[in-house]
């Protein structure tokens, strides 16, 4: 039986949406390539998005909730989206670095 993973991508409404979408798509494809049953929520860019995702998480059983921070984001959105997650579920965070490799020594 495959573990059920819910991936919650986080972004910012002022971040270039084409770049944000590409980062999220690449990450979703990577996780989808693992041997898991993957569900991806809408991208959380604001408190209304976070509240909608929080309601979805309450209704979606999962073995792991993966909060994916794809760019700068408001911490309050992360908390609002994930604060009602069941204590029996594991929740972890992951992040992306969008800088070109030649310009970045560390992310």
Report on this model:
With 107 residues, the protein is α/β, with parallel strands linked by helices. The chain has one domain. It is 35% helix and 21% strand. The protein is built from three helices and four strands; from the N terminus they run E-H-E-H-E-H-E. Strands 2-1-3-4 form a four-stranded parallel β-sheet, with helices on both faces. Helix 1 links the parallel strand 1 and strand 2 (37-40). It is flat. The termini are far apart.
The helical percent reads 25-40%
Number of domains: 1
- Unreliable parts: 99-107
Number of strands: 4
Largest sheet, order of strands side by side? Answer: 2-1-3-4
Percentage of residues in DSSP E strands: 15-25%
Largest sheet: 4 strands, parallel
Number of helices: 3
Shape: flat
Radius of gyration: 14 Å
Terminal Cα span: 35 Å
Mean pLDDT comes to: 81
Category by helix and strand content: alpha/beta
Q: H/E element string? A: EHEHEHE
């Amino acid at each position: 039986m495959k573990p059920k993973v819910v991936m919650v991508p986080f972004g910012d409404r002022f971040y270039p949406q084409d770049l944000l979408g590409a980062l999220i798509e690449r990450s979703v494809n990577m996780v989808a390539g693992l041997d898991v049953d993957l569900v991806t929520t809408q991208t959380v860019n604001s408190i209304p998005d976070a509240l909608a995702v929080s309601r979805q998480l309450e209704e979606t059983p999962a073995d792991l909730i993966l909060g994916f921070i794809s760019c700068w984001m408001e911490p309050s959105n992360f908390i609002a989206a994930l604060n009602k997650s069941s204590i029996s579920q594991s929740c972890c965070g992951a992040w992306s670095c969008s800088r070109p490799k030649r310009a970045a020594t560390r992310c």
